[in-house]
Write a structure and sequence with these properties.
Length: 304
């Protein structure tokens, strides 16, 4: 593969923390430009450490990281220009105003306030924060803070956007709004990489994925191939009223009270089921898998 086709290339990356915790034991993977990629793994797998190295927050122990053709060791500034990472923890000044937080970020990239203004407006609007632009960040809800992190990340038009657990603390309705936004960003050409514990999230957004566990890449796959190896899964969706619709038929729906069980497979996605329910006028209160498809898969694939 041509180097220039790659948004990110990681080779034999290792990280041992000061206390001898071996967080990464030599991981290698490539991500193509324009991809929507999921880094999937359980707690402590090394996802945030990998992302920390890419973003320059964590110094690697050894290995090579190339972002948009620029080696992090030799062209640090160029490599960093092309990528922005939305970390797992909020890291803006809570007493600053929303608009100023986004604009100040542009300053780090040598973009003037005036030049940054159109992007600030565009992304604050796209993420539903424009009305909140003059309030202090501390007054935002958790989900709004998460969206502010994303608006800020986009201000300098990075070619690669990396999101560490982007939907943690974001409610179901907003989550789907965020999915739509991320999909549009990806369709407009941005490479997006996210970490998640949720297979459903990777499934409805991403094309390719790697499973990371105990500091090692276990598998790197197109999502569709992964799903084909899995059993169908039953998801219980709690609605605002009893389900009496017709359009969910292919999901073999089973109604009980205000809940409906739907069967998700490689052919019929959860995302479409949610859309159908919306079209039929149902509001989703909550949902949960009846069987842990991803957990079962982890157990199988990480069995040493
Ligand atoms: N600053 C640090 N100092 C020492 N050890 C660390 C540090 N950060 C992470 N670790 C350790 O490195 C390992 C990988 O952690 P990491 O945060 O990368 O996992 P993760 O996959 O992001 O997990 P989660 O899903 O819980 O966010 C863990 O054993 C963790 O305890
Ligand atoms: Mg993490």
């Amino acid at each position: 593969m041509q180097k220039s086709e790659l948004a990110l290339s990681i080779k034999n990356l290792t990280k041992t923390y000061w206390n001898w915790t071996k967080a990464l034991s030599g991981i290698t993977f490539d991500i193509k430009k324009g991809d929507f990629f999921a880094l999937l793994g359980p707690n402590g797998a090394g996802k945030s450490t990998t992302i920390g190295v890419i973003s320059g927050l964590v110094t690697k122990t050894s290995g090579q990281v190339i972002i948009g053709g620029h080696d992090l060791d030799h062209s640090w500034a160029e490599a960093r220009m092309g990528v922005w990472v939305v970390p797992q923890e909020f890291n803006f000044g809570i007493f600053e105003k929303v608009y100023d937080i986004v604009i100040a970020q542009a300053g780090y990239y040598g973009i003037s306030r005036k030049a940054a203004a159109p992007n600030a407006e565009k992304y604050l609007k796209a993420l539903g924060l424009w009305e909140k632009r003059n309030v202090q960040a501390r007054t935002l809800s958790g989900g709004m803070k998460r969206r502010l992190m994303i608006a800020r990340a986009l201000i300098h038009d990075p070619i690669v956007l990396i999101l560490d657990e982007p939907t943690a603390g974001v409610d179901l309705e907003l989550r789907h709004g965020m999915y739509t936004f991320l999909r549009e960003m990806n369709e407009s050409g941005m490479t997006i990489i996210l970490t998640t514990h949720y297979l459903e999230e990777a499934e409805s957004l991403c094309r390719n994925m790697a499973i990371i566990d105990a500091g090692m890449i276990r598998k790197q796959w197109p999502i569709r191939e992964l799903l084909a190896t899995m059993e169908d899964e039953v998801i219980t969706i709690d609605l605002d009223k009893k389900y009496t619709g017709q359009a969910l038929e292919k999901y073999a729906p089973k109604s009980e009270g205000d809940s409906v069980d739907v069967t998700i497979s490689s052919k019929y996605s959860l995302d479409d089921a949610i859309k159908i329910l919306g079209q039929e006028g149902y509001k989703i209160i909550s949902m949960k898998p009846k069987s842990g498809r991803l957990e079962e898969f982890f157990l199988k694939s990480t069995k040493k």
